[in-house]
């Protein structure tokens, strides 16, 4: 018996963790921590510090057909999901439900959750909103399921407004802008790469119009739920980031460039999701109380 | 990651890691948390923070909002409880939870299973002494 997987040899430990990753990948996100704990304890009880991969394979086989199938790579285990040196990854195509689980889960107090797509962690805007006292952890039975159509339409207004502002910026100030504009900034916020004014305008206008289009398409959809809210959050993030970039290109730069750009992406996305969730909560209250 | 305490206690010929013991205790708690919430709601409807407060007042369960709210969400999805907003005499409206018929049946089944496991373990542990 060992008390931690850290007591295993590096080879066996790596194989054990790979098996744990594969085993929990097949179950819903909210069950993974519990399942991983249980399987870790089962391994610790059955292995000792000198156990090799063969012993691990035997123990895994003893643990049951589902676990054994996961270990051998058969069954429901999904190799596109797991951890790599402790960093979670998930390279399955993102879905509205997974995005909701990682980016809007007010019931979960964690601020960062394994990302819905790619490697690393997503900011749980829902958990952050609860910590800030902006919404209750159980404000909605099912996030965004009761959010009214009008709220989705209103949320599409932000990316449209940002796109209009970017277009107006280049239309009005375009002639007076320098021929070359900053396109990248170093860690201290000083511009270190430049592009022609026309290219900068094309990128900024193109991206902001794409964000407005994404928002409009989400608003026009008749299907309520996490997918629709996620598309509007993404549109707001792109629109906010591009608008900030457009303004920052005209300034000298400084330490604030990074935080402002990150805030320009995160704040619109978070506020959009928060607004849609509050609208959903109000709709639930109107349903039950006759008023919000 | 190594346990931060790294304390060992020797009982007979076996070593028990305190952290492992804590983890096992946590496992026991996880197994009964659903019954705790269903049992509380079997006594009458309650709102979310009321459930959290009443369970948090029982230190042996060691439950917090971070455990209770995701569980409420799962029970809602499973159709074992439902929710409704109600006016509050103080402050804004609150969301109250109550057992559905399926939830009442699940609570009876879990309670019966718990009684059986508890009695069996009590007998077993008495014999072990």
UniProtKB/TrEMBL annotation, chain A:
Database matches in InterPro entries = DUF1648 (IPR012867)
Residue ranges of the TM segments: 256-279
Keyword annotations of the record: Membrane, Transmembrane, Transmembrane helix
The DUF1648 domain covers which part of the protein? 165-200
**Do you know which Pfam families this protein is assigned to?**
DUF1648
Name it: DUF1648 domain-containing protein
